[in-house]
Design brief:
Blueprint lengths: L2 H10 L13 H14 L3 H17 L10 E2 L6 E7 L8 E3 L3 E7 L1 E7 L1 H7 L4 E8 L3 E4 L3 E6 L6 E7 L15 H11 L7 H20 L5 H13 L2 H10 L14 E4 L6 E6 L4 E8 L2 E9 L3 H9 L2 E3 L9 H13 L3 E3 L4
Antiparallel strand pairs: 1-2, 2-9, 3-8, 4-7, 4-9, 5-6, 5-8, 10-14, 10-15, 11-12, 12-13
Helix pairs in contact: 3-6, 3-7, 6-7, 6-8, 7-8
Length: 347
């Protein structure tokens, strides 16, 4: 099965168009859930979807929650992946139209809340708790408040099929529920701060590593091609991670990496601080919440980090100080993996 096959199944059922105000029949959503359950256990399907996910990564689009890698033009139905670090949760939130969620790798726990009572009492009222291991899928048809969580010590991956009407404000709500409003505000916030680029760069590397981890055990030629794309999109740290996944095998067709580092955003403010007591030099960035330490290194890196703090673009060989070549490389890799700098692919 491929994504086009799943889209064909959706198109053959009576889903309303993207512009329509009505919702589909429950049986159509349930039937789609059954198809999704089969799809997420099919390596061919996941590899096909991951090709589109890498298109999204390479486009540089900033991810906000479940950012779709594909949207059906006629039906507006969205497809996306969710990446769940150990112990993570998005927090309680509401779906106002149908959604289908399937766990592709590892597991999730899902808590649901009594929506009517929660709005009436202005506090979340627990209702059910579900375990969702790999291969399990579920769907929401009526509006629902829930909170998925990865309670394990490993990353989890989920696949989502979402109505174009999910997220619309419902007219039956006489007043808002503050905890849900906070979630929406957080998802829609666009601070426009230079530091946002740092967070986006880190997020892209998380996605690349998780995509690579899913692809590595798959023996198909297409998976190998996509793994090479992951390698090209990765920082030096990510590339070594991918090479370990492949058992140390060389990744073909990737070429040499640029030696030029460019600040993720030209207006990102960086500064360094030297701690005489510990002998550590600390590189930090100005964020909306103030100065945040990003790197801490021994005093041998003091001149190099001071140089990086005041220079927007430089060749790695320009890093000053009494450094060996390997030390310059390690400093450059740390600057890149932090998200403060990216490789200039045009250099």
């Amino acid at each position: 099965m491929k994504l086009d096959d799943l889209c064909g199944l959706l198109g053959a059922r009576s889903f309303p168009s993207a512009q329509a105000r009505e919702h589909p029949e429950r049986d159509d959503v349930a039937a789609t859930r059954t198809a999704v359950s089969a799809a997420v256990t099919d390596d061919e399907f996941l590899v096909d979807c991951m090709a589109r996910e890498l298109d999204l990564v390479e486009s540089g689009v900033r991810r906000r929650g479940l950012t779709p890698f594909f949207t059906m033009p006629d039906l507006g139905i969205r497809f996306s992946f969710g990446y769940w670090r150990p112990g993570s949760t998005p927090g309680p939130h509401e779906h106002t139209a149908w959604t289908i969620t399937a766990v592709c790798r590892n597991e999730l726990e899902v808590l649901t809340y009594d929506r009517e009572e929660s709005y009436r009492r202005q506090m979340l009222i627990p209702k059910n708790r579900f375990e969702a291991p790999a291969g399990r899928s579920g769907f929401i048809y009526e509006p629902c408040i829930h909170n998925p969580r990865n309670n394990t010590d490993r990353w989890s991956l989920s696949f989502h099929v979402t109505s174009p009407r999910d997220g619309e404000r419902l007219v039956d709500e006489e007043r808002s529920l503050p905890v849900l409003d906070e979630f929406v505000d957080r998802m829609l916030a666009d601070r426009g701060h230079p530091y946002d680029g740092v967070l986006a760069a880190r997020q892209r590397q998380i996605v690349v590593r998780q995509v690579a981890q899913l692809l590595a055990p798959v023996g198909s030629p297409q998976a190998g091609i996509l793994l090479n794309r992951c390698h090209r999109a990765g920082t030096a740290v990510t590339r070594r991670f991918i090479e370990r996944l492949r058992g140390g095998d060389a990744v073909t067709g990737c070429g040499d990496r640029s030696r030029t580092l460019v600040r993720t955003h030209p207006e990102l403010a960086l500064s360094h601080r030297y701690d005489e007591k510990s002998g550590l030099v600390r590189l930090g960035a100005e964020t909306p919440e103030g100065w945040v330490e990003e790197l801490a290194m021994s005093r041998v890196a003091r001149d190099a980090l001071a140089f990086a703090a005041r220079t927007n673009a430089f060749d790695v060989r320009q890093l000053p100080g009494s450094l060996y070549e390997d030390e310059r490389r390690m400093i450059a890799e740390a600057l890149e993996d932090s998200g403060l700098f990216t490789r200039d692919t045009h250099a």
